[in-house]
Amino acid sequence: LSLPSSMHLIQMDSVQRWMEDLKLMTDCECMCILQSKPISIEKDEQNELMLSSQYSTCDNLQLLLKRAWIISTELTRIAQKLEKNRWQRVHSMTVRINCHVRSMINEYNMFTRNSSEEMHQFEKLLMDKCSEFTAFTERCMQTEDEQILKSMKSCVNETLTTIAQYFGQLIELVLTHEAQNLLRQIELSDSVYVTESALSGLFSLTQEGAHLCRIIAKEGGVVTLFKICRQDCFRGLYPQTLRTLASICCVEEGIHQLEKVDGILCLADILTDNSHSEATHAEAAAVIAQITSPHLTFTQHLSNFLENMEEIVTALVKLCQEASSGEVFLLASAALANITFFDTMACEILLQLNAMKTLLAACSDKRLVDTPYSRDQVVTILANMSVLDQCASEIIQGNGIQLLMEMLFEKSSSGNSAEVAACERVQQKSAVTLARLSRDPEVAEAAVKLSCIPRLIKLCRSPTERNNSDSVLVACLAALRRLAVMNPEGLEDLDFQQLVKPRLVDSFLLCTNMEESFV
Protein backbone atom coordinates (compact mmCIF):
# COMPACT_ATOMS: atom_id res chain seq x y z
CA LEU A 1 0.00 0.00 0.00
CA SER A 2 1.43 3.34 -1.07
CA LEU A 3 0.38 6.18 1.24
CA PRO A 4 1.02 9.91 0.76
CA SER A 5 3.99 11.56 2.44
CA SER A 6 3.48 11.78 6.19
CA MET A 7 2.36 15.14 7.45
CA HIS A 8 4.55 17.27 9.64
CA LEU A 9 3.08 17.47 13.15
CA ILE A 10 3.75 20.04 15.81
CA GLN A 11 5.19 18.29 18.86
CA MET A 12 2.60 18.40 21.64
CA ASP A 13 1.19 16.42 24.52
CA SER A 14 -0.91 13.45 23.37
CA VAL A 15 -3.99 14.59 25.30
CA GLN A 16 -3.72 18.04 23.74
CA ARG A 17 -3.41 16.40 20.28
CA TRP A 18 -6.56 14.35 21.03
CA MET A 19 -8.45 17.48 22.09
CA GLU A 20 -7.34 19.23 18.89
CA ASP A 21 -8.51 16.35 16.72
CA LEU A 22 -11.70 15.66 18.68
CA LYS A 23 -13.83 18.26 16.94
CA LEU A 24 -12.89 16.77 13.57
CA MET A 25 -13.59 13.25 14.78
CA THR A 26 -16.89 14.30 16.35
CA ASP A 27 -18.02 15.98 13.16
CA CYS A 28 -17.13 12.78 11.34
CA GLU A 29 -19.18 10.60 13.71
CA CYS A 30 -22.21 12.91 13.25
CA MET A 31 -21.80 12.54 9.51
CA CYS A 32 -21.68 8.75 9.84
CA ILE A 33 -24.98 8.74 11.72
CA LEU A 34 -26.62 10.92 9.08
CA GLN A 35 -25.14 8.77 6.32
CA SER A 36 -23.14 11.68 4.90
CA LYS A 37 -26.16 13.98 4.60
CA PRO A 38 -25.09 17.63 4.85
CA ILE A 39 -25.51 19.39 8.20
CA SER A 40 -27.45 22.65 7.95
CA ILE A 41 -25.53 25.66 9.20
CA GLU A 42 -28.39 28.19 9.07
CA LYS A 43 -28.96 28.10 12.85
CA ASP A 44 -25.44 27.18 13.83
CA GLU A 45 -23.30 30.11 12.82
CA GLN A 46 -20.92 29.53 15.73
CA ASN A 47 -19.99 26.01 14.66
CA GLU A 48 -16.22 25.77 15.06
CA LEU A 49 -15.78 23.70 11.93
CA MET A 50 -17.53 26.19 9.67
CA LEU A 51 -14.91 28.45 8.18
CA SER A 52 -16.02 32.07 8.37
CA SER A 53 -14.27 35.18 7.12
CA GLN A 54 -12.52 35.59 10.49
CA TYR A 55 -10.32 32.64 9.64
CA SER A 56 -7.10 33.50 7.84
CA THR A 57 -5.59 31.46 5.02
CA CYS A 58 -3.11 30.03 7.57
CA ASP A 59 -5.96 28.84 9.83
CA ASN A 60 -7.74 27.24 6.89
CA LEU A 61 -4.59 25.49 5.72
CA GLN A 62 -3.91 24.24 9.25
CA LEU A 63 -7.41 22.77 9.38
CA LEU A 64 -6.91 21.20 5.95
CA LEU A 65 -3.57 19.69 6.99
CA LYS A 66 -5.02 18.31 10.22
CA ARG A 67 -7.87 16.72 8.30
CA ALA A 68 -5.40 15.32 5.76
CA TRP A 69 -3.25 13.91 8.57
CA ILE A 70 -6.30 12.14 10.05
CA ILE A 71 -7.18 10.66 6.65
CA SER A 72 -3.59 9.52 6.10
CA THR A 73 -3.54 7.88 9.54
CA GLU A 74 -6.90 6.20 8.98
CA LEU A 75 -5.77 4.77 5.63
CA THR A 76 -2.78 3.19 7.36
CA ARG A 77 -5.01 1.75 10.09
CA ILE A 78 -7.43 0.30 7.52
CA ALA A 79 -4.53 -1.51 5.85
CA GLN A 80 -3.51 -2.95 9.24
CA LYS A 81 -7.04 -4.12 10.08
CA LEU A 82 -7.38 -5.61 6.61
CA GLU A 83 -4.30 -7.74 7.20
CA LYS A 84 -6.01 -9.20 10.27
CA ASN A 85 -9.31 -9.78 8.36
CA ARG A 86 -11.29 -7.61 10.77
CA TRP A 87 -13.96 -6.79 8.21
CA GLN A 88 -16.45 -5.08 10.51
CA ARG A 89 -13.75 -2.71 11.75
CA VAL A 90 -12.56 -2.13 8.18
CA HIS A 91 -16.07 -1.15 7.11
CA SER A 92 -16.68 1.29 9.99
CA MET A 93 -13.29 2.94 9.33
CA THR A 94 -14.11 3.13 5.61
CA VAL A 95 -17.35 5.00 6.40
CA ARG A 96 -15.33 7.37 8.57
CA ILE A 97 -12.74 7.94 5.82
CA ASN A 98 -15.58 8.67 3.39
CA CYS A 99 -16.93 11.36 5.73
CA HIS A 100 -13.51 12.87 6.39
CA VAL A 101 -12.75 13.12 2.67
CA ARG A 102 -16.06 14.84 1.94
CA SER A 103 -15.61 17.20 4.90
CA MET A 104 -12.08 18.07 3.82
CA ILE A 105 -13.15 18.81 0.24
CA ASN A 106 -16.16 20.88 1.38
CA GLU A 107 -14.07 22.85 3.88
CA TYR A 108 -11.38 23.55 1.31
CA ASN A 109 -13.84 24.67 -1.35
CA MET A 110 -15.37 27.11 1.15
CA PHE A 111 -12.18 29.16 1.43
CA THR A 112 -10.26 28.55 -1.79
CA ARG A 113 -10.54 30.51 -4.98
CA ASN A 114 -9.59 29.80 -8.59
CA SER A 115 -9.22 26.06 -7.99
CA SER A 116 -8.27 24.24 -11.17
CA GLU A 117 -10.33 21.85 -13.26
CA GLU A 118 -7.73 19.17 -12.54
CA MET A 119 -8.35 19.62 -8.81
CA HIS A 120 -12.12 19.23 -9.24
CA GLN A 121 -11.52 16.06 -11.28
CA PHE A 122 -9.43 14.55 -8.48
CA GLU A 123 -12.01 15.57 -5.88
CA LYS A 124 -14.70 13.70 -7.85
CA LEU A 125 -12.45 10.68 -8.46
CA LEU A 126 -11.59 10.48 -4.76
CA MET A 127 -15.18 10.83 -3.53
CA ASP A 128 -16.45 8.28 -6.07
CA LYS A 129 -13.74 5.81 -5.12
CA CYS A 130 -14.47 6.31 -1.39
CA SER A 131 -18.19 5.63 -1.96
CA GLU A 132 -17.33 2.54 -3.98
CA PHE A 133 -14.95 1.41 -1.22
CA THR A 134 -17.65 1.84 1.46
CA ALA A 135 -20.17 -0.21 -0.52
CA PHE A 136 -17.57 -2.87 -1.25
CA THR A 137 -16.50 -3.32 2.39
CA GLU A 138 -20.16 -3.51 3.40
CA ARG A 139 -20.61 -6.49 1.07
CA CYS A 140 -17.47 -8.08 2.51
CA MET A 141 -18.82 -7.64 6.03
CA GLN A 142 -22.01 -9.48 5.11
CA THR A 143 -20.15 -12.41 3.55
CA GLU A 144 -19.05 -15.30 5.75
CA ASP A 145 -17.51 -17.52 3.09
CA GLU A 146 -13.74 -17.50 3.71
CA GLN A 147 -12.86 -18.25 0.09
CA ILE A 148 -14.99 -15.41 -1.25
CA LEU A 149 -13.50 -13.03 1.34
CA LYS A 150 -10.01 -14.13 0.36
CA SER A 151 -10.67 -13.36 -3.30
CA MET A 152 -12.28 -10.01 -2.41
CA LYS A 153 -9.35 -8.98 -0.21
CA SER A 154 -7.04 -8.28 -3.15
CA CYS A 155 -9.71 -6.02 -4.70
CA VAL A 156 -10.11 -4.18 -1.40
CA ASN A 157 -6.33 -3.70 -1.19
CA GLU A 158 -6.24 -2.41 -4.74
CA THR A 159 -9.08 0.07 -4.05
CA LEU A 160 -7.35 1.24 -0.86
CA THR A 161 -4.12 1.85 -2.78
CA THR A 162 -6.03 3.83 -5.45
CA ILE A 163 -7.70 5.97 -2.76
CA ALA A 164 -4.30 6.65 -1.18
CA GLN A 165 -2.90 7.68 -4.58
CA TYR A 166 -5.84 9.96 -5.43
CA PHE A 167 -5.69 11.46 -1.96
CA GLY A 168 -1.93 12.11 -2.22
CA GLN A 169 -2.32 13.70 -5.66
CA LEU A 170 -5.20 15.90 -4.50
CA ILE A 171 -3.25 17.14 -1.46
CA GLU A 172 -0.26 17.84 -3.72
CA LEU A 173 -2.48 19.91 -6.06
CA VAL A 174 -4.07 21.78 -3.15
CA LEU A 175 -0.75 22.68 -1.54
CA THR A 176 0.74 23.71 -4.90
CA HIS A 177 -2.31 25.86 -5.56
CA GLU A 178 -2.00 27.58 -2.16
CA ALA A 179 1.75 28.16 -2.65
CA GLN A 180 1.04 29.69 -6.08
CA ASN A 181 -1.64 31.98 -4.62
CA LEU A 182 0.66 33.26 -1.88
CA LEU A 183 3.58 33.80 -4.27
CA ARG A 184 1.28 35.61 -6.72
CA GLN A 185 0.15 37.93 -3.91
CA ILE A 186 3.77 38.74 -3.06
CA GLU A 187 4.70 39.28 -6.72
CA LEU A 188 1.80 41.62 -7.49
CA SER A 189 1.62 43.56 -4.24
CA ASP A 190 3.26 46.89 -3.51
CA SER A 191 1.56 47.04 -0.11
CA VAL A 192 3.68 46.18 2.92
CA TYR A 193 0.59 44.90 4.78
CA VAL A 194 -0.53 42.52 1.98
CA THR A 195 3.04 41.29 1.41
CA GLU A 196 3.55 40.69 5.13
CA SER A 197 0.33 38.67 5.34
CA ALA A 198 1.32 36.53 2.32
CA LEU A 199 4.82 36.05 3.76
CA SER A 200 3.30 34.84 7.02
CA GLY A 201 1.21 32.27 5.12
CA LEU A 202 4.23 31.14 3.10
CA PHE A 203 6.37 30.75 6.23
CA SER A 204 3.57 28.67 7.79
CA LEU A 205 3.66 26.35 4.79
CA THR A 206 7.45 25.90 5.06
CA GLN A 207 6.99 24.68 8.64
CA GLU A 208 4.92 21.73 7.43
CA GLY A 209 7.98 19.83 6.23
CA ALA A 210 10.50 19.34 3.43
CA HIS A 211 7.88 18.30 0.86
CA LEU A 212 6.14 21.66 1.05
CA CYS A 213 9.50 23.46 0.85
CA ARG A 214 10.15 21.57 -2.42
CA ILE A 215 6.76 22.64 -3.80
CA ILE A 216 7.46 26.30 -2.92
CA ALA A 217 10.95 26.14 -4.44
CA LYS A 218 9.62 24.56 -7.66
CA GLU A 219 6.97 27.29 -7.91
CA GLY A 220 9.68 29.98 -7.83
CA GLY A 221 9.46 30.87 -4.14
CA VAL A 222 13.19 31.59 -3.73
CA VAL A 223 13.20 33.95 -6.74
CA THR A 224 10.17 35.83 -5.41
CA LEU A 225 11.63 36.20 -1.91
CA PHE A 226 14.96 37.53 -3.15
CA LYS A 227 13.05 40.15 -5.15
CA ILE A 228 11.72 41.45 -1.82
CA CYS A 229 15.24 41.51 -0.40
CA ARG A 230 16.30 43.79 -3.26
CA GLN A 231 13.59 46.41 -2.70
CA ASP A 232 14.20 49.14 -0.11
CA CYS A 233 10.48 49.75 0.35
CA PHE A 234 10.22 46.29 1.99
CA ARG A 235 13.19 46.69 4.38
CA GLY A 236 10.96 46.13 7.38
CA LEU A 237 10.03 42.71 5.95
CA TYR A 238 13.62 41.54 5.35
CA PRO A 239 13.86 39.49 8.60
CA GLN A 240 10.59 37.65 7.88
CA THR A 241 11.58 37.12 4.23
CA LEU A 242 15.03 35.77 5.13
CA ARG A 243 13.54 33.46 7.78
CA THR A 244 11.25 31.98 5.12
CA LEU A 245 14.19 31.61 2.73
CA ALA A 246 16.20 29.73 5.36
CA SER A 247 13.31 27.26 5.73
CA ILE A 248 12.98 26.69 1.98
CA CYS A 249 16.74 26.16 1.63
CA CYS A 250 16.60 22.99 3.74
CA VAL A 251 15.91 21.20 0.42
CA GLU A 252 18.12 20.85 -2.63
CA GLU A 253 15.67 22.61 -4.95
CA GLY A 254 15.79 25.69 -2.71
CA ILE A 255 19.60 25.90 -2.79
CA HIS A 256 19.64 25.43 -6.59
CA GLN A 257 17.20 28.31 -6.94
CA LEU A 258 19.26 30.46 -4.55
CA GLU A 259 22.37 30.09 -6.67
CA LYS A 260 20.49 30.81 -9.91
CA VAL A 261 19.36 34.23 -8.65
CA ASP A 262 22.79 35.19 -7.18
CA GLY A 263 21.39 34.74 -3.69
CA ILE A 264 24.88 34.49 -2.14
CA LEU A 265 25.79 37.93 -3.45
CA CYS A 266 22.52 39.37 -2.11
CA LEU A 267 23.15 37.82 1.33
CA ALA A 268 26.72 39.18 1.34
CA ASP A 269 25.38 42.66 0.50
CA ILE A 270 22.86 42.49 3.34
CA LEU A 271 25.44 41.26 5.88
CA THR A 272 27.97 43.95 4.97
CA ASP A 273 25.44 46.81 4.86
CA ASN A 274 25.59 48.50 8.27
CA SER A 275 22.31 50.33 7.66
CA HIS A 276 20.37 47.08 8.13
CA SER A 277 18.98 46.10 11.53
CA GLU A 278 20.58 43.43 13.70
CA ALA A 279 17.48 41.26 13.14
CA THR A 280 18.05 41.41 9.36
CA HIS A 281 21.74 40.52 9.77
CA ALA A 282 20.85 37.62 12.11
CA GLU A 283 18.31 36.15 9.67
CA ALA A 284 20.80 36.49 6.79
CA ALA A 285 23.28 34.57 8.97
CA ALA A 286 20.59 31.90 9.46
CA VAL A 287 20.28 31.48 5.68
CA ILE A 288 24.09 31.16 5.40
CA ALA A 289 24.05 28.57 8.21
CA GLN A 290 21.34 26.61 6.41
CA ILE A 291 22.92 26.51 2.95
CA THR A 292 26.38 25.58 4.31
CA SER A 293 25.14 22.90 6.72
CA PRO A 294 27.55 19.92 6.76
CA HIS A 295 24.52 17.64 7.02
CA LEU A 296 23.43 18.57 3.48
CA THR A 297 24.94 16.54 0.66
CA PHE A 298 24.16 19.04 -2.09
CA THR A 299 26.10 22.20 -1.12
CA GLN A 300 29.20 21.44 -3.21
CA HIS A 301 27.82 23.41 -6.17
CA LEU A 302 27.84 26.71 -4.22
CA SER A 303 30.77 28.04 -6.26
CA ASN A 304 29.65 31.66 -5.77
CA PHE A 305 30.10 31.24 -2.05
CA LEU A 306 33.91 31.03 -2.25
CA GLU A 307 34.02 34.31 -4.18
CA ASN A 308 32.17 36.10 -1.36
CA MET A 309 33.46 34.06 1.58
CA GLU A 310 35.93 36.57 3.02
CA GLU A 311 33.43 39.40 3.29
CA ILE A 312 30.73 37.04 4.62
CA VAL A 313 33.07 35.63 7.30
CA THR A 314 34.20 39.15 8.26
CA ALA A 315 30.57 40.29 8.62
CA LEU A 316 29.67 37.22 10.70
CA VAL A 317 32.60 37.76 13.09
CA LYS A 318 31.47 41.36 13.51
CA LEU A 319 27.93 40.15 14.21
CA CYS A 320 29.31 37.83 16.93
CA GLN A 321 31.23 40.74 18.46
CA GLU A 322 28.24 43.08 18.49
CA ALA A 323 25.47 40.55 19.21
CA SER A 324 22.90 41.91 21.67
CA SER A 325 21.42 38.50 22.53
CA GLY A 326 22.18 34.81 22.72
CA GLU A 327 19.93 34.10 19.73
CA VAL A 328 21.83 36.49 17.46
CA PHE A 329 25.17 35.06 18.61
CA LEU A 330 23.91 31.51 18.03
CA LEU A 331 22.88 32.24 14.43
CA ALA A 332 26.13 34.04 13.59
CA SER A 333 28.36 31.41 15.24
CA ALA A 334 26.39 28.56 13.61
CA ALA A 335 27.02 30.12 10.20
CA LEU A 336 30.75 30.45 10.99
CA ALA A 337 30.92 26.87 12.29
CA ASN A 338 29.36 25.52 9.09
CA ILE A 339 31.64 27.62 6.90
CA THR A 340 34.73 26.14 8.62
CA PHE A 341 33.51 22.73 7.41
CA PHE A 342 32.70 24.13 3.98
CA ASP A 343 36.24 25.35 3.17
CA THR A 344 39.53 25.25 5.13
CA MET A 345 40.41 28.75 3.91
CA ALA A 346 37.72 30.02 6.27
CA CYS A 347 39.86 28.99 9.27
CA GLU A 348 42.77 31.08 8.00
CA ILE A 349 40.47 34.08 7.50
CA LEU A 350 39.14 33.63 11.07
CA LEU A 351 42.70 33.55 12.41
CA GLN A 352 43.56 36.78 10.56
CA LEU A 353 40.41 38.44 11.96
CA ASN A 354 41.40 37.50 15.53
CA ALA A 355 38.07 35.65 15.77
CA MET A 356 39.42 33.27 18.42
CA LYS A 357 39.57 36.12 20.93
CA THR A 358 35.96 37.14 20.15
CA LEU A 359 34.62 33.60 20.53
CA LEU A 360 36.50 32.86 23.77
CA ALA A 361 35.38 36.16 25.28
CA ALA A 362 31.77 35.44 24.33
CA CYS A 363 31.87 32.12 26.20
CA SER A 364 32.44 33.95 29.48
CA ASP A 365 29.40 36.17 28.80
CA LYS A 366 26.28 34.29 29.96
CA ARG A 367 24.13 36.79 28.09
CA LEU A 368 25.54 35.48 24.79
CA VAL A 369 26.54 31.88 25.44
CA ASP A 370 24.14 30.30 27.88
CA THR A 371 23.15 27.01 26.22
CA PRO A 372 24.92 23.84 25.02
CA TYR A 373 23.80 24.77 21.48
CA SER A 374 25.87 27.96 21.48
CA ARG A 375 28.86 26.20 23.06
CA ASP A 376 28.53 23.50 20.39
CA GLN A 377 29.00 26.14 17.67
CA VAL A 378 32.00 27.74 19.40
CA VAL A 379 33.80 24.45 20.06
CA THR A 380 33.12 23.36 16.46
CA ILE A 381 34.95 26.45 15.22
CA LEU A 382 37.81 25.83 17.70
CA ALA A 383 38.09 22.18 16.64
CA ASN A 384 38.26 23.08 12.94
CA MET A 385 40.72 25.93 13.56
CA SER A 386 42.94 23.74 15.74
CA VAL A 387 44.43 22.08 12.63
CA LEU A 388 46.37 25.33 12.07
CA ASP A 389 49.70 25.54 13.91
CA GLN A 390 49.24 29.24 14.74
CA CYS A 391 46.03 28.42 16.62
CA ALA A 392 47.77 27.09 19.76
CA SER A 393 49.19 30.44 20.92
CA GLU A 394 45.81 32.14 20.32
CA ILE A 395 44.07 29.51 22.47
CA ILE A 396 46.55 29.90 25.34
CA GLN A 397 46.36 33.71 25.26
CA GLY A 398 42.56 33.63 25.39
CA ASN A 399 42.47 31.13 28.28
CA GLY A 400 41.00 28.59 25.83
CA ILE A 401 42.37 25.47 27.55
CA GLN A 402 40.38 26.35 30.67
CA LEU A 403 37.26 26.69 28.49
CA LEU A 404 37.87 23.30 26.82
CA MET A 405 38.32 21.73 30.25
CA GLU A 406 34.97 23.19 31.37
CA MET A 407 33.32 21.84 28.22
CA LEU A 408 34.41 18.32 29.17
CA PHE A 409 31.96 18.67 32.08
CA GLU A 410 29.02 19.71 29.85
CA LYS A 411 25.74 18.28 31.17
CA SER A 412 22.12 18.75 30.19
CA SER A 413 20.01 20.54 32.79
CA SER A 414 16.66 19.64 31.23
CA GLY A 415 17.18 16.06 30.04
CA ASN A 416 15.70 17.09 26.69
CA SER A 417 17.01 14.72 23.98
CA ALA A 418 18.17 17.54 21.68
CA GLU A 419 20.01 19.23 24.54
CA VAL A 420 21.60 15.92 25.63
CA ALA A 421 22.84 15.37 22.06
CA ALA A 422 24.27 18.92 22.02
CA CYS A 423 26.10 18.22 25.31
CA GLU A 424 27.61 15.06 23.81
CA ARG A 425 28.83 17.05 20.80
CA VAL A 426 30.39 19.66 23.10
CA GLN A 427 32.25 16.97 25.07
CA GLN A 428 33.39 15.18 21.94
CA LYS A 429 34.61 18.30 20.11
CA SER A 430 36.39 19.72 23.16
CA ALA A 431 38.29 16.40 23.48
CA VAL A 432 39.09 16.48 19.73
CA THR A 433 40.35 20.07 20.03
CA LEU A 434 42.55 19.13 23.00
CA ALA A 435 43.96 16.15 21.09
CA ARG A 436 44.83 18.33 18.09
CA LEU A 437 46.28 21.22 20.09
CA SER A 438 48.31 19.01 22.44
CA ARG A 439 50.86 18.42 19.71
CA ASP A 440 52.14 21.79 20.99
CA PRO A 441 54.11 21.18 24.25
CA GLU A 442 52.89 24.46 25.76
CA VAL A 443 49.22 23.47 25.27
CA ALA A 444 49.85 19.97 26.63
CA GLU A 445 51.53 21.42 29.71
CA ALA A 446 48.62 23.81 30.32
CA ALA A 447 46.11 20.94 29.91
CA VAL A 448 47.99 18.78 32.43
CA LYS A 449 48.11 21.65 34.96
CA LEU A 450 44.34 22.09 34.64
CA SER A 451 43.81 18.37 35.44
CA CYS A 452 42.52 17.45 32.01
CA ILE A 453 43.99 13.92 32.27
CA PRO A 454 41.87 12.83 35.30
CA ARG A 455 38.75 14.22 33.62
CA LEU A 456 39.48 12.38 30.36
CA ILE A 457 40.04 9.15 32.32
CA LYS A 458 36.71 9.65 34.12
CA LEU A 459 34.91 10.14 30.79
CA CYS A 460 36.50 6.96 29.42
CA ARG A 461 35.74 4.82 32.46
CA SER A 462 32.29 6.14 33.39
CA PRO A 463 29.61 5.67 30.70
CA THR A 464 27.13 7.94 32.52
CA GLU A 465 29.61 10.83 32.49
CA ARG A 466 29.57 10.72 28.69
CA ASN A 467 25.90 9.70 28.43
CA ASN A 468 27.01 6.33 26.98
CA SER A 469 28.31 8.11 23.89
CA ASP A 470 30.83 6.14 21.82
CA SER A 471 31.93 9.24 19.90
CA VAL A 472 32.85 11.01 23.17
CA LEU A 473 34.76 7.90 24.29
CA VAL A 474 36.85 7.72 21.09
CA ALA A 475 37.65 11.45 21.26
CA CYS A 476 38.65 11.19 24.94
CA LEU A 477 40.89 8.17 24.30
CA ALA A 478 42.61 10.05 21.46
CA ALA A 479 43.16 13.14 23.64
CA LEU A 480 44.41 11.03 26.54
CA ARG A 481 46.93 9.25 24.32
CA ARG A 482 48.23 12.57 22.94
CA LEU A 483 48.66 14.00 26.47
CA ALA A 484 50.28 10.76 27.69
CA VAL A 485 52.97 11.13 25.02
CA MET A 486 53.71 14.67 26.22
CA ASN A 487 53.38 13.84 29.94
CA PRO A 488 53.72 10.08 30.63
CA GLU A 489 54.15 10.53 34.40
CA GLY A 490 50.65 12.04 34.62
CA LEU A 491 48.99 8.60 34.36
CA GLU A 492 48.80 5.81 36.89
CA ASP A 493 50.07 2.43 35.71
CA LEU A 494 46.59 0.84 35.42
CA ASP A 495 45.28 3.72 33.31
CA PHE A 496 48.35 3.57 31.09
CA GLN A 497 48.04 -0.23 30.68
CA GLN A 498 44.31 -0.11 29.83
CA LEU A 499 43.70 3.22 28.11
CA VAL A 500 46.97 4.17 26.41
CA LYS A 501 49.19 1.16 25.72
CA PRO A 502 46.73 -1.14 23.85
CA ARG A 503 45.42 -0.47 20.36
CA LEU A 504 42.73 2.21 20.35
CA VAL A 505 40.06 -0.32 19.37
CA ASP A 506 41.01 -2.58 22.31
CA SER A 507 40.79 0.28 24.80
CA PHE A 508 37.48 1.29 23.26
CA LEU A 509 36.04 -2.23 23.68
CA LEU A 510 37.33 -2.38 27.26
CA CYS A 511 35.60 0.92 28.15
CA THR A 512 32.31 0.11 26.41
CA ASN A 513 32.07 -3.19 28.31
CA MET A 514 32.75 -1.66 31.72
CA GLU A 515 30.14 -2.23 34.40
CA GLU A 516 29.72 0.76 36.69
CA SER A 517 29.58 0.10 40.39
CA PHE A 518 26.68 1.75 42.19
CA VAL A 519 27.75 0.54 45.66
- Termini distance? 53 Å
Return the CATH architecture of the domain at 54-174: Up-down Bundle
Oligomer class:
single chain
CATH fold name of the domain at 54-174: Four Helix Bundle (Hemerythrin (Met), subunit A)
Overall radius of gyration = 29 Å
CATH superfamily placement of the domain at 54-174: Nucleotidyltransferases  domain 2
Number of helices: 25
State mean pLDDT (0 to 100 scale). 83
Which stretches are poorly predicted, pLDDT < 50 over at least 5 residues? 1-11, 27-55
Tell me, what is the CATH class of the domain at 54-174? Answer: Mainly Alpha
SSE sequence, one letter per element:
HHHHHHHHHHHHHHHHHHHHHHHHH
Largest sheet: none
The percentage of residues in β strands lies in under 5%
> What helical percentage do the residues reach?
over 70%
Class by SSE composition: mainly alpha
GO molecular function: cytoskeletal anchor activity
Pfam families: Insc_C, INSC_LBD
Domain Protein inscuteable homologue LGN-binding: 10-54
InterPro entries: ARM-like (IPR011989), ARM-type_fold (IPR016024), Armadillo (IPR000225), Insc_C (IPR045789), INSC_LBD (IPR031938), INSC_LBD_sf (IPR038205), Inscuteable (IPR039921)
